[in-house]
Amino acid sequence: MLQVNLSSSSARVEPFAESLAQAHTWLQEATGRGSDFVGWVNLPRDYDKAEYARIQAAARKIQSDSKALVVIGIGGSYLGARAVIELLESNNYNLRKKNTPNIYFAGNGLSGDAMQEIFDLIGDDDFSVNVISKSGTTTEPAVAFRFFKARLEEKYGKAGAAERIYATTDKARGALKSLANAEGYDSYVVPDNVGGRFSVLTAVGLLPIAVAGIDLDELMRGAADMMETCRRPGLESNPAWQYAAARNDLYGQGKKVEILAAYEPRARFFAEWWKQLYGESEGKEGKGLLPASVEFTADLHSMGQYIQQGERTMIETVIRFGKSASHLCVPHDDADGDGLNFLAGKDMDFIATQAMDGTLLAHVEGGVPNLIIHAGEINAYTCGELIYFFEYACGLSGYLLGVNPFDQPGVEAYKKNMFALLGKPGYEDMGAALRAKLGR
Amino acid sequence: MLQVNLSSSSARVEPFAESLAQAHTWLQEATGRGSDFVGWVNLPRDYDKAEYARIQAAARKIQSDSKALVVIGIGGSYLGARAVIELLESNNYNLRKKNTPNIYFAGNGLSGDAMQEIFDLIGDDDFSVNVISKSGTTTEPAVAFRFFKARLEEKYGKAGAAERIYATTDKARGALKSLANAEGYDSYVVPDNVGGRFSVLTAVGLLPIAVAGIDLDELMRGAADMMETCRRPGLESNPAWQYAAARNDLYGQGKKVEILAAYEPRARFFAEWWKQLYGESEGKEGKGLLPASVEFTADLHSMGQYIQQGERTMIETVIRFGKSASHLCVPHDDADGDGLNFLAGKDMDFIATQAMDGTLLAHVEGGVPNLIIHAGEINAYTCGELIYFFEYACGLSGYLLGVNPFDQPGVEAYKKNMFALLGKPGYEDMGAALRAKLGR
C-alpha cells in the first residue's frame, strides 16, 4: 500500500486538518469550486462498465489487425496514456520485440518533421488511429488527424479507414462526434465532468493503455483501492491529506518549486503527467509551486549541483518504487582496478537504495525538504494507486491553496493569439492588432 | 548566423558592459576563477587533430562491425552526445531503419531494469562499448562497465572484447586509463582542462556522435565560427554577451527560474544538456536561475497554465529553429467539420511560426520576459554554433553572477553518503553515523 513519509521535511500538517476536512467534503460531495469537474473522484467505482468492455474489445481488434496505433491528442489526451505505458512497459516500448502494436503519439505539437517521422516509421505497416479530442477542433490534434485520416483512406479506402479510426470525444456534441457519427467510427466518451488532466482512467487513457497489453483490471483495482483509502477523512490514515498539507505548508514557508524525482528512467513521462496535473491545477492567480522533475541518479550529475547548493526555494518529492523485476548482481573482477569489488555480488536494487538514502540525507542537509512516496513494485495495480493518489491530493491541494483546481483559464491565451495570427475566420481584427505588435 | 533577440524582455544589458568585458578577458586569457577548466574556450580551433582522425576511424570500424554501441557515462559524459544525436538525427534514432548502429546509453543511473532492458534490446547482435569516465571509478558507469565488459568477454573472448571497447578517459592516470593500457583498449582523452559539462566537442561527445553518422566537420565548423563570433568583445556583436547579460539582469530583477523552450520534440535532450550546463555552473552559494525546460506546443497544454498565470518568477528562453526538412501541407477536407479549412494548403512551419508568435505575445503579456535565440535550420553546423554559444554565454554568466562557473562542489555530497552507505572501505565511521540518522 502506498505510503507517504514526511519525516525528512519540516512540514507541519496538523494546522491543515480543518481546511483538509472542508476540501475533502467539497470533493466528496461536489460542492466546491469547479465541482462540475469532479467526476474523476468516484470514477474507479462508477466508470461505464459497458464502455470498458468495448475498450478491451477494441484493443484486441487493434492488436490483431495493426502493427501500429497512432494516438492523436495533446495535454491530458496524451500524457496519461504515455505516462502509464512507459512506466509499466518501458520508455523503449516501441523498440522492444513484442506481440502488441507500436504506439506513436501524434498531434501533440506542430513539428512537421516529427509528423513525417511517424509516417516513415509506420511505412507500409497496417495501422489504426485513436483520435482523442473533446471538441474535435483543438488545432494540434485536429491538424494531425487530417493527415492520418487522409493516409488511412488512401491505404484502406473510406470504409476500410472508418474501421480503423477510434474516436474518443464528447458523448453527444462537437466536430469529432459529428464526424464519428457520420462516418461510423467506433467512439468513446470524454466525460463532461472529468477534465483532461484527470482523464487517464477514462477511455482517453484506457484505450491506448489496453492496446499496449497492460492489465486494465489491475490498473482500475489499484485506483479503486486508493479511492477507498482517500475517502477516509483524517491525517493519519489518508496519504493524500498528508501530501496535500505538506506541500501547502512548505509553500507557505516560502518554497516555490517542487521537484518530482524517481530513480527509474521509465518514470520520465509519469513525471510529465504529474507536472500537468499540479501545474495546471494550481498555477493560477500568481500562485502555486512550480512543478519540475528529475530522473535520478542521472540528474544528480546535472541538476544535482543546483539542488544541493542553488537558491534555497525548492522541495523534493521522491517516488520510491519497490524491488525491480531484474536481479542483476555486480560481477566480481580480479584486478579490481575500479575499486568496486566491495560491491561484487550485491544487486542493483541494493545499490540504488543506498543512493536514494545518501541523496536524501545530502539534500535535506542542503536545505531541501524531502517528501517520500513509497509506491511499491512497479505494476498496473500500484500505478493505479499512484494515479488516484496524486489526483486526489491535487484536488485537495488546490483547495488548500485557495484556487479552483479544475479550470485552466491561462491555456486560452496562446490559442486565441495563434488563431488570430493564423487568420481564423472571426479573428481578423485581433490578427491585425497582433501583427502590429510583432512589427509585421 | 545565430542571433539573440531581447526585445520581448525587459532586460537592460548595457549596465553589464564593464563586467562582461572583465569576464570576457577572464575566459580569453584564462585568468578568472576556475581558469584551470577553460580548455573548451579555444577547443574548436585547438582540438587534437590526430585524435579527431582516430575518432572518425573508430566510428567507421564500429559502424562496420557492430549493430549497437553502448555508451557508458553519466552527466557530461552522457548528455552532450545524446543531445546532439537526438537533435540532429531524432529522438527515435534507434527506431529508424538506418545503416548506422543503434546507440544505447547506459551507466547513467542505477536501475537494474533499465540495464536488463539494454541487454534484451541488444540480444545476439554484435555490439561495441564506449566507456567514458575521467577517473574510471564513478559508481554508475563503473558498475555498468563491469556488466558490459563481462558480456563482451563472454561473447568475443578477452582479446575480441578488447577490440570492441573504446575508453574515453584521462590521458595518463586513473583506473580506466590503467585498464585500457593493460588490456589494449583503443583510448581517447578527456582533457584535464575541460569539465564534463563542457566536453561535448571532445572525444567524450564526438565518438558516439560520429557513430550515429553525424558530420563532425560541420559540427566543429559551426562551433569554430561561433568561437570567432564570441571572441569579439562588445554587446552589439556578441550574442553570448547579450544572453549572459539579459539573464543576469532579469535574475537581479527577482526572476528565479529560466525555462528553455523549443518547438521540436527532438530538442528535449538538448534542453537536458543545457540544464546541466547552467544549473551546475551557476547553482551554488545559494544563487542561480533554476533551469527548467518545456517542449512546445505539447507543454502549452500542461505547463502552459502555470507559465501564463502561476508565480511570476520565471523567464523563458526560446530556441527558434528555421525551416523544417519536411514540407507537409494541411489537407483540404470538403466537410470541414473541424473548421480548419482556413489552414488547408498551409505548411506546418507556417502554423508553428504563428504558434510561436502567439505564445510569445501571450507569455510576455502574462509577465514572462522572453529571450529568443534564432538558431537557423537544424543541422550539424547550427548545432555546433548553438553548443558553443551556450557554453561561452555560460562562462560569462557565471562570472557575472559572482561564482566559479567551473566547479561543482555540491555534486560530491550524495556520492560520499552513498559510498558510506554502500560500505566502501575507508567510509566505515561515516556509514555508521548515516545509518543512525536513517534509523537503521
Oligomer: homodimer
> Termini of chain A, distance in Å?
58 Å
Class from secondary-structure proportions of chain A: alpha/beta
Which spans of chain A have pLDDT < 50 for at least 5 consecutive residues? none
Compact description:
By secondary structure, chain A is α/β, with parallel strands linked by helices. Chain A has 16 helices and ten strands. In chain A, 48% of the residues lie in helices and 12% in strands.
Can you walk through the features of this model?
The structure is a homodimer of 440-residue chains. With 440 residues, the first copy, chain A, is α/β, with parallel strands linked by helices. Chain A contains 16 helices and 10 strands. In chain A, strands 1-10-9-7-8 form a 5-stranded mixed sheet, with helices on both faces. In chain A, helix 11 links the parallel strand 7 and strand 8. The first copy, chain A, is globular and about 65 Å long. The mean pLDDT of chain A is 97. The interface between A and B is large, with 130 and 130 residues.
Summarize this structure as a short list of keywords or feature phrases:
homodimer; 440 residues; alpha/beta; 16 helices; 48% helix
Itemize the secondary structure elements and their pairings.
2 copies of one chain form a homodimer.
Chain A: E1 3-5, H1 17-29, H2 43-46, H3 49-65, E2 68-72, H4 79-88, E3 102-106, H5 112-122, E4 127-132, H6 139-162, E5 165-169, H7 175-183, E6 186-189, H8 203-211, H9 216-231, H10 239-252, E7 257-262, H11 268-282, E8 290-295, H12 304-309, E9 314-321, H13 348-365, E10 370-376, H14 380-401, H15 412-422, H16 428-438
Parallel strand pairs in A: 2-3, 2-4, 4-5, 5-6, 7-8, 7-9, 9-10
Antiparallel strand pairs in A: 1-10
